[in-house]
Amino acid sequence: MIPAAFDYHRPASVEDALKIISEHGDDARVIAGGHSLIPMMKLRMTDIGHLIDLQSIDSLKGITVDGATVKIGAMTTQHELIENAALQTAAPIISEAALQIADPQVRYMGTIGGNVANGDPGNDMPGLMQCLDATYTLKGPNGLRDVPAREFYEAAYFTGREDDEILTEIQFSAPGGGYAYEKQKRKIGDYATAAAGVLITKDGDTCASASIALTNLADTPVYCEEAVDALVGSSLDAAAVSAAVSAAVDASDPGEDNRGPVAFKKHAAGIVIRRAIERAIERA
Asked: What pLDDT, in 10s, does the model give residues 207-235?
């Protein structure tokens, strides 16, 4: 189908974009890569009178690694996440996850900001950002504010971002240790049936820290605190891993859809989580 008529804006700064949002209110929407919004417009599932394209705002692009601090501009593409050498060193789990998103055509246009900002439970980066304990920087008419990724997602497509705010940057500390992002999907380009991001550090033979988050296994990404507790302080033996897998599966809350019934998704989740934990342990 063809979208309804709309006015197209391409501001050169965040301030200009915010002015357009302020002027048109609910009738305006920002667009990054467009992979979520454009299909909805074509299906007439959303009625937007003013489309604000962020592609020309250079301040929203780029990756900075300063010591242990990683900052990623919201308009940085998935392809740029994969290709950036400094990011590969600081947080290789980012590129591992980005390589599993759709296909190269999508990754050349799709942005990390668009992936995390709209609250789509099928997107890969929201769960990964919870795994990394990232912080989102939002800019609105009242200035800047930071929101932890683990507090940002409220329900499917509902987030902590106000309608008059733009997500500008993502920041986290380089994790170190072992990592893995495992994903099961029906075919290339599809959303995950189940996916898991895992980070693990060791102190000798003991697990010093861990982080586990799930993708597309609930209405929001799931940070699995009880699964983390099962690993930290353990020797990462089979019993600890099994306890963590069980706790993570229990934390999931998938719904039935064309990817399968709930029981199948829980089964797939258990396999994916175990693979991610075991691979992270090997890399640690």
From this structure: 999 999 999 999 999 999 999 999 999 99
